[in-house]
Amino acid sequence: MFPTKSIPLLLLSFFLLLSTSFGDDPLNDICFGKDNYTSGSPYKANLDSLLSALVSKVPPSGFATGSSGKWRNQAYGLALCRGDVSSSDCKSCVSDARPELLQRCPRQKGAIIWYDNCLLKYSDVSFFGKIDNSNKFNMVNVEDVDMDFMEFYMKIKELLNSLTGKAVAGPKKYAYGELELGEEKTLYGLVQCTRDLSGNDCKTCLGGAISDLRGCCYGRRGGRTIGGSCNVRYELYPFANV
Predict the structure, then answer these.
(1) Which compartments is it annotated to reside in (predicted)?
(2) C-alpha closest to that of 231 among 58, 27, 32, 94
(3) Is residue 241 part of a domain?
(4) Rg of the chain on CA atoms, in Å
(5) Which of 133, 106, 138, 102 shows the shortest CA–CA distance to 120?
């Protein structure tokens, strides 16, 4: 029997293998609000207004934050699309995320959902400009890599650290690239932060996400750390548009 904490990781491992074929399925969701709301409440009205605004605001640039309401009934939200995603695919992803998240977290005042192409997050507490270390998970390709594990891990760090520098310096806080491994092998990597983070906080967030890969994905052909403020990914096949 598997320990309880192992079950989500095993399930996410299979989702990673399936994601290339079923990219529209959510990768994961977390309902994290301490308090609940009721239908017809002021918070619910503010939340609906906020999510509608985000669906409209996000596609042109791929990122937006917003809030609706005042005081204890104020709702704060953020939406981010992957840096290579088109405006139409971005809008489609965030539009799908809105009802899906409300269905999965029907009463919680804080929630987040991730897809391959976007994330959507809201809360009754302002979280802008702060690293979210609470809402985070890993996904792993269950196949072992056919080379020395430590050598492969060092190549992963080399690529993702290089991409971190590019992301922090860029307006989208996003970077995708590759590293030749020899023997006709190429390592592909992606890093991205939400754009409300400062450059230093983005670097800190990505550094933590890269470090998390060793615990979940050492020796595996692909892996991801996905969070509310940043995400990193590596694979032995191309997975983003260039």
Answers:
(1) Secreted
(2) 27
(3) no
(4) 18
(5) 102
Edge-to-edge strand list for the sheet holding 75-81: 28-31, 111-114, 118-123, 75-81, 63-68
pTM for this predicted structure:
0.88
Q: Are residues 40 and 82 in the same domain?
A: yes
Whose tokens are 């596609």? That residue is 59
Same domain, 146 and 89: no
Tokens for 157, please give them: 């760090």
Residue 56 belongs to a domain: yes
Q: Are residues 110 and 197 in the same domain?
A: no
- The answer to whether residue 240 sits within a structural domain is no
H helical segments located in 58-148: 87-104
Structural domain of 229 = 136-235
Tally of domains in the chain: 2
CB contact burial 114-146 (16+ within 10 A = b; e otherwise): bbbbbbbbbbbeebeeebbeebbbbbbbeeebe
Indicate whether 11 and 109 sit together in one domain. yes
The string of pLDDT tens digits covering residues 139-183 is 999 999 999 999 999 999 999 999 999 999 999 999 999 999 988
**CA-based torsion, 25, 226, 193, 158: positive or negative:** negative
% of the chain residues with pLDDT over 90: 84
Q: Does residue 141 share a domain with residue 203?
A: yes
